Amino acid sequence: MTVPRVIAICLAAVLAAALPAAVSARDDLRIRVTVLPESTGSGEVTGPGLVCPGDCTAAVAEGGSYSMTGKPEAGSSLTWGGACEGVAPEQPCVLTPNRRTTQVTALFTRTGPGPGGDEAAPKTTITKAPKRKVRTKRSKARVRFEFASDEKGSTFECRLDKKPFVGCESPRTAKAAVGKHTFDVRATDRAGNTDGSPAHAAFKVVKKKKG
Questions:
Q1: Could you tell me which residues are beta bridge partners of residue 44?
Q2: pTM of the full predicted structure?
Q3: If we measure between CA atoms, which residue out of 136, 73, 82, 141 comes closest to residue 110?
Q4: Residues 6+ apart with CB under 8 A from 56
């Protein structure tokens, strides 16, 4: 047997041995989990090689199945979405992926006191407010408020005068007509406790005199 023929046979054997591994690598599919940012509660999704938040992507061989479980913390509930939509929250979501990347979402919603039975309401503070008397040349003045909570991760609701509370973020700007006004803001912590004594500010908008 000639040397070139021996080399060709060896090369073919090497390629044949490497080919299944390459094909297998290409056949790996992925499941990607996203804990939705609008979640008001907390928890995690776990499965083989997956703990989300954290490592939120798992590989699955083509034709294989994958099971993941949602674990809401105390005071939170779970709603599956994406490829797991419709699965009961207390049941594992079992998938047999048929596409390169399968998307799954998890929404954790606050339902009561959080871990440890937190029932203490946060304290809300207005850190910056307009002067007691705001002067303007127009019929309305732009006012700005900054506020904070003593509990990290709190959300806020604001209202100007006697309007209903609405969700807001600091800083908050608004337009106020000539006259007297009040501004209230209250914080709600991650466990769902709301400040029963909203932070309060009062001010008056007056027209600048001509001249």
A1: 71
A2: 0.49
A3: 73
A4: 32, 33, 34, 35, 45, 50
From the list 120, 128, 92, the residue with the least C-alpha distance to 189 is 120
Q: How far apart are CA 168 and CA 157, in angstroms?
A: 5
- Alpha carbon separation from 162 to 42, 95, 158, 159 (Å, rounded): 33, 51, 11, 7
- Find the Cα–Cα–Cα–Cα dihedral 36, 39, 41, 43, rounded to 10°: 0
pLDDT at 82 (0 to 100): 95
Which residue type sits at 62? E
**Single-letter amino acid code for the residue at 32:** R
CA 99/CA 104 separation, integer angstroms? 13
Question: What's the pLDDT score for residue 164?
Answer: 95
Q: What is the CA radius of gyration of the chain?
A: 29
| Residue positions counted in the chain | 211
- In sequence order, what DSSP letters do the residues of 24-78 get, joined into one string? HHHH-EEEEEEE-TT-SS-EEEEETTEEETTB-EEEE-TT--EEEEEEEPTTEEE
DSSP letter at 185 equals: E
Tokens of 131: 């002067």
The model's pLDDT over 93-143, given as tens digits with 9 standing for 90+, comes to: 999 998 899 999 999 887 766 655 567 889 999 999 999 999 999 999 999
> Does the pLDDT at position 32 exceed 50?
yes
